Amino acid sequence: MTDVTPFIEQPPPARAAAVIPAAGLGLRLGPGAPKALRPLGGTPMLVHAVRAMARARAIALVVVVAPAEQVALVRSLLDEHPPPPAVEQLVVAGGATRQESVRLGLAALPEEIEVVLVHDAARPLVPVGTVDAVAAAVRAGAPAVVPALPVTDTVKSVAATAASGDPEPVVATPDRSLLRAVQTPQGFDRATLLAAHRANTADQATDDAGLVEQLGVPVVLVPGHEEAFKVTRPLDLLLAEAVLARRRTTDDF
Ligand code: C5P
To answer: Which of 99, 123, 138 has its CA nearest to residue 14?
Structure first.
């Protein structure tokens, strides 16, 4: 009998890009080079972050947003550590705030990109499984997807008025079971993210999903990963070195 199974043409997968804001100075890490250029296991943190994104199957393009005066330096650094052949990379100059840097990265995206993942250079060790899960949820139809973990500390709200160094009056203790600590990459339908950035250039959002929430568009959380932590303080660098050393011995990383 002839096989009559119809050939169902699948639409091509939406092309996804990663925008990596890496233009911050990272002053909380102490004096030295901009945070994204600090070495981790002998390789700049930014290179780890680019690799983490480029390894994900969905990603066709990585846009790195560098400190304005270091675009050439970052370009040559990334040329020394090229991504897999199927992945393009671009370096553009960043702005004074994270939000502005992301906006400048988005402006560099070619038209055919439909899905955008925004990933902080300061989270160099995010596992590829987390990146894939975020991209897959956006491709499945969610306009905004954020990896998140339950919080382990109890969190207090304080009055905004206390002078620095003074004891801070507590105003509330939110129910910890309803709080989540969010990470990156945060994934978006491109049109939604562009609309969110256009609608709000005044506030200084600390994440992109916050801007999308202001539009009234639903944002969903997927499980984050403890190794996607942000390298902010000197202790985080020690932890990152330890994670990397373990991966190099156990995962042939
Ligand atoms: O300051 P914070 O840790 O929130 O920065 C998160 C990310 O935003 C970092 O990767 C940093 O390099 C980036 N950033 C940026 N442009 C700025 C400030 C921060 O790209 N002006």
So the answer is: 138
